[in-house]
Protein 1
Amino acid sequence: MTELPDRLLRDALHDSASKTPSSMCVDADALAAWADGTMAGADRVAFEIHAAGCARCQALMAAMARTEPPPIEPAWWRRPFYSWMMPLAVATAAIIIVVFLAIPERRGPALPGPAVTETSRDASASVAPPHAEKTAPSAAAPSASPAAPPSAAGAGVPDSRRDRATTLTRNERPQDESKDAAGRPAAKSERAARDAEPAAAQPPVPAPASPLASTASAPPSAAVAGAVSPPAAARETASPGGAGGGGLGATAAAQVPAAGTRANADAARSFDARAGAEALHLKAVAANPLLIVSPVRESQWRIVNGAVEHTDDGGATWRPQALGTDVPVRAGSAPAARVCWLAGARGLVLLTTDAATWRRIGFPESVDLVAIDATDAVHATVTTADGRRFSTADGGQTWTH
Amino acid sequence: MSAHAADVQLARLCAAGDERAWETFVREYRPLLYRAADALDRTGGAREVADSLYAELYGIKDAGGARQSLFRYYQGRSSLATWLRAVLAQRYVDRVRVQRRTEPLPEETDGTAAPPADPDRDRYVALVRTALARAVSRLDPRDRLRLASYYVQELTLAEIGRLLRESEASASRHLARTRRDIRADVERQLREESRLNDEQIAACLASVVEDPGPLDMKQVIYD
């Protein structure tokens, strides 16, 4: 099978990203929080969705990746993790040795030997090579990557390219960390931040009064000029829904209640309205499977991460259904036990009338669909992500706005 | 917040004009700032940005004679080191983008000078390009971001993994899967929408394999 050339793919990706920054673009403060992993989950998802279509934010993300300092390992015994781990490791080793030596007959004859050696190796690891123990994965990654087996790291990715990339990074990385004492505290606090990531989802800090605050409502072109001050832009990202410009946040509030499905509405209530509409969907879909109940209790569908499962026994067993598409499903409606309509991203509409085989229904636009409401196998109404509603009265052959 | 309490304190003291705090900052963070600048542009182009950033951190006197330091914007949402990198990244990226916009566009070289090729070939290339653009626009945002990070930004798998909080191996797996999806989508479009047969599809794909030469990567990355 002929592969599409990289160059062509690159062009297509490059062309697909918007060249004009928008109010969804991050400011330095948010970019740093994103890079440190201290950005709240929903904001993170919203930013990544935005960045997928924004050339500037892609460049910003890449710049953060390129400037990430190589991890500087302080002497192992100085790390707080090990200093309290050592007595614990010794105690654990002692307990394990006692357990294995005391009751060897209860295990296979081969077991006690290796187990004891492993334990003693664990114990000695605290005294010998610093790399034997695991460090935070993100911190360990850069040093591990050049050694990673190419087969595992790059299945399906052109080899020459990957090798070039790896070599490039290796060459580009400044290697003067050993003597550079100044960089050390910085790297340390960075690692601390990464370790603390899950607990560190903080509310945005109110920005101080600043003469530049007025730029918050300025057109996005201000961002291009490079004159965006951190707090000004911070406010922008903090309330895209409120900024009348009608970013994604503005539509979020409007469209979700229209979705008409209970799970979506629940998710909407619990969700902070400032995240983008797409993020909202992603969250609603990923958080809990969306149940599509038919009038007959036994027959139900559910949407799990964009895929669809069906049950014929009231939910005791679920079987995945082949939809014939990879496009994620967002909503569904089952007006009868065997009839179900599904709607999803990029104009996806599917219909089954036997609860088994699915047929793709043509839809006039490649727009994301967020809700569908059907009364039978021929009448259905869908809601698009931008809040418009389309109805069909002939099983999807024609749609009227 | 407590994770960066020391950083916040340092920034606050620096903003207030504390000389010792500033010395500490210079000693500990200036090398980091310069190293980040060099990583962005090995020819030294980002040093200039770092220097002006440095001056703003020290504080520029406003009209009233009071010194205003950039430090006042640091709120401890991230470590100070990451914040500095982010401010640098933002200014550098925006500066390059503005420069690119004002620079004259390079002369179109391909297309006009090329010998009149097979008319079918031109049509095929156009078909594939259109189908590819559509396939890319249909990707899930995260898949598109990953792919763009790899092909447009030319990040390594390890860097992409760190950015998207996934392992290098799964970044690689996802990339391969996304490529397959795109390939299948393109072929499906050629078959169903352009009504091409197997032979024509093969000819289409063969016609785009010839690489028309390298593109200006700086333009691609910062456009």
Note: Chain B has ten helices and two strands.
Protein 2
Amino acid sequence: MKKNLIEVKNLEKYFEVSGGFFSRKKSTVKAVDNISFEIPFGESLGLVGQSGCGKTTTARALCLLDPKTGGEVSFYNNELQQMESIDNLEGEELKNFRRNIQMIFQDPYESLNPRWTIKDIILEPLNIHNIGELADREEAVVEILKTVGLTPPANYLPRYPHELSGGQRQRVSIARTLIMKPKFVVCDEPTSMLDVSIRISIMDLMLNLAKDLEVSYLYITHDLAVARYMCNRIAVMFNGKIVEIAETEELLSNPIHPYTKRLISSIPVPDPSYKRQVYDLNYDELDSIIAMDTEQKGMVDIGNQHYVATHDVKGLL
Amino acid sequence: MSKEVLKVTDLNMHYETLSGNVTAVKDVSFTVYEGESFGLVGESGCGKTSVAMSLLQLQADNAKISSGSINLDGKELVGLNESELRKIRWNSISIVFQGAMNAWNPVVKIGEQIREAIREHYPSNSKSQNTEKIESLFKIVGLDNSIMERYPHELSGGMKQRAVIALALSCDPKIVIADEPTTALDVVIQDQILKEIKKVQELLGLSLIYISHDIAVIAEMTNQMAVMYAGRIVEIGPTSEIFSNPKHAYTKLLLESTPSVVGEKKKLRSLDGEPPSLIDEVKGCSFSPRCPEPSEDCKNGTKEMGLIEVAPGHFADQCCVECG
């Protein structure tokens, strides 16, 4: 059994929305509703689902960017040699946690400060966390640029983001993330804005870094083909809930939940002779299925570490 | 052999910029037959959209077609003036733009915007005739009639894109250009829209030019395809033939860099480097700097460029047939 780096139990993120200026009624949007998963050291979990299903909200809650409204998130504490709830973190410990958990965003055009040079951008996290002497920091920046394939580094240091292409910018984002030597990186669709040809080199870079530096990823995407390439396990989300979670190949070859089946059947296949299975799904029906699931709460283990949220596993099998 | 609808021969188009001429489309030739769907694939900046814009001559002011011919159903489009072009646009050839769902006028109802296009081309139609027409189009693309009375912000992305397709079909064109119509959409919605486009095409016997950077979508949507690189067509032929038997080094790389959810998990190849700047005249092969195994002739630029027939109906740039 591998050691877990992060464990999420019954995570909830509810948003209160008022029913209008004159209305006292308040309703709750359950953006993330009772989800649980864990990620072992050096492994990556894919979080897949349609836009608005709560993928990014989950990620933000994990990184403490937004406070969660319920549930528990624990992170492996190296000093204590055990899992520790992130709610209890304070002061130095909290800072340490933030060092170990980093995020790569979707849009490399918006996530880099346009008025800063590449050097400033990558140097900033080191300055904030006060790591090493200035000369060491600058050396670290040069090293990390080499690692992410922006060579020779001297060419890139004084440049501004607008002078770089999309792929190069995303490499800068990755460099900025990895310079902190994090254990856990949340990647929010890091390749969806990039061209096909550049996409693979960025994905390969991230896979190699995961191997070399033992980084775990939470990889958010709506593209199952990308998730298959990147992740050991995949969790499928729908309307704020995880409906199915399993090893990547197991999930793709043996999907159980109707939504997972629909998702897999809607990915175009790069082979003209391949006929995709038609799997039409009535979304109203799906909503009622999932409403019934929630009454029961929890996931059913169907073997092979494959978990499905369902009220009627036998009916689906 | 079915009828030729669109025949493009040796089309050259460049943008005049302060730093020089950017040749975006270079010696492009292809033919689209009736009821056929033709795919154009390539990475961003390779000239796919420039080709589409040249066909409708909707290109920016600094773009000039320097030579070549665009023959639509026996009529030459290059050299027509604006009022002649207006008659052809939408009537014979229409386009679904990239990100078209954001191109709706936000303060005019959807139905009115489609009606406007129909009025322009069929001025004698009565209002009720136009409404009937829109209702029938909405039925084809799977929209409810009540959408006509809605404003764009009231619709989801998928609904807006469906309405754009209805708009493109509103004046019974013979040929529709779809320029990345599903790029901004979710996979499930993309799937629905692709099915809708296919259905419409079969139902109305349309010819379709489908532009995408996603080779998986091209595989599903088209029966003929062309691969573009740096403004040129480097490989062209039947889609199934190109996928099973790619000849050009770039096509091979493109095919091997696309992840898939079916079949065995493969190691994917990456395509390093950047496409060349189109400002300078590239000597010899434009792909050789990025080619994994360029031949000596290719590197030195001594090899001749140009399409040769490698199999019946399948052409590839002779320069790179043996590379990669």
Note: Residues 196-213 of chain A form the longest helix (18 residues).
